[in-house]
Amino acid sequence: MKRAWAIAMLTWAVSVPARAQVTNQDTGAVFPTIQAAIDAAGFNETLVLDPGVYNEALVVNQVVTIEGAGVATITASSGYGVIDIPPTLGLTLRGVTLSSATVRAINAQAGSGFALEDVVITGTTTTGHGGGIYAPDTSGITILDVTFQGTSATLDGGAIYVASDT
User: Fold this and answer.
1) What's the domain count of the chain?
2) H or E element: which one contains 144?
3) How large is the greatest C-alpha to C-alpha distance in the chain, in angstroms?
4) Does the residue 139 lie in any domain?
């Protein structure tokens, strides 16, 4: 009886999937969510995502790099975007997929900047401008090896909307 119970518990423990985690590459600290890692990050630190799906809308309140260590998908259903970058802040994003059926992927506010590398933006939409990326009056944008799939906007820029007053 004890042996059967022990085997059952071992089988259950092995079959329960581990929750994806975020590791600050610079400090070694581990976080349960990307937002918690961003909130605790210092200037220009790198956050590494375990493979998995992260269902959270992010606000970048520090200049950071976010990298996927495998297949990492960030998805959100509320907010201004899957990732919101406030003015004067920046983000480097590598090796991840951004997905949402109800908001744009990146909402870069005036004065912010970002770099994307090896990123997939899929299924994002907005009733405004920029279904994939909205970036008016940003300070700098770099986009390398980015794939847009099924992004849409009611107004201009189904994939990317970039505008400048100058």
Assistant:
1) 1
2) strand 140-149
3) 77
4) yes
CB 164 within 8 A of CB 141: no
* Closest alpha carbon to 79 in 95, 62, 98, 93: 98
Q: Tell me the whole-structure pTM to 2 decimals.
A: 0.83
Q: Which residues contact 65 (CB under 8 A, 6 or more apart)?
A: 44, 45, 46, 47, 91, 92, 93, 94
Residue 104 domain-assigned (yes or no): yes
Would you tell me how many other CB atoms lie within 10 Å of the CB of residue 79?
17
Query: Does the residue 135 lie in any domain?
Result: yes
- pLDDT tens figures, 6-50: 444 444 333 334 567 999 999 999 999 999 999 999 999 999 999
Torsion angle (degrees, nearest 10) of CA 151, 55, 83, 44: -140
Instruction: With beta carbons less than 8 A apart as the criterion, state whether 108 and 129 touch.
Output: no
- How far apart are the C-alpha atoms of 59 and 66, rounded to whole Å? 13
Its domain, for residue 142, covers 50-163
State which amino acid sits at residue 132.
G
30 within a domain of the structure (yes/no): no
For the chain, the straight-line distance linking the first and the last C-alpha, in angstroms and rounded, comes to 77
